[in-house]
Structures are given as C-alpha cells and as structure tokens.
Write a structure and sequence with these properties.
Blueprint (H helix, E strand, L loop, with lengths): L14 H32 L4 H5 L9 H12 L2
C-alpha cells in the first residue's frame, strides 16, 4: 500500500495488520448500527410512541424486550 510508506519512502511496519484490525472494528460497528437501525425502523413502522407501554405488549417489535423483562423480574427477587 502506498499509504504504508513513511514520508521518506521507508515502509511503516505493521500497517497491514493495523489496517486489518481497524477494518474489523469498523465492520463490527456497522453491524451493530444496522441492528439498531432495524429495531428503530420496526418501532417507527409499528407506531410505538411509548417504549415502556410497547415493551409490555406481546406484539412489541422491539428486540430484547424479553431480556429487559427478565432483568426487571430479577430485581424484584432481591
């Protein structure tokens, strides 16, 4: 890679490894953002105005509502 050269024309060691690692980070962030976007779009399409009310409905389109309910129930057991 041309960007792998220092100003004086010497190769910069490890650029390929660092670039590959950064690319993996960016891909992971894109995947996370895509999941969030899908959930938000589904909520908008379903007409959710109050997430607290919507999350209590069995037809709630928001993912992870079961996990939220489990966490609430776990808190009550203490």
């Amino acid at each position: 890679m041309e960007t792998g050269r220092h100003r004086h024309g010497r190769p910069v060691a490890g650029l390929q490894d660092r670039a590959a690692a950064k690319l993996a980070e960016v891909d992971a962030e894109i995947a996370d953002l895509t999941t969030i976007r899908t959930a938000l779009a589904t909520a908008v399409e379903a007409g959710c105005d109050d997430l607290t009310v919507c999350a209590q409905s069995p037809c709630c389109p928001i993912p992870f509502t079961d996990l939220a309910e489990e966490n609430r129930n776990a808190g009550r057991c203490c």
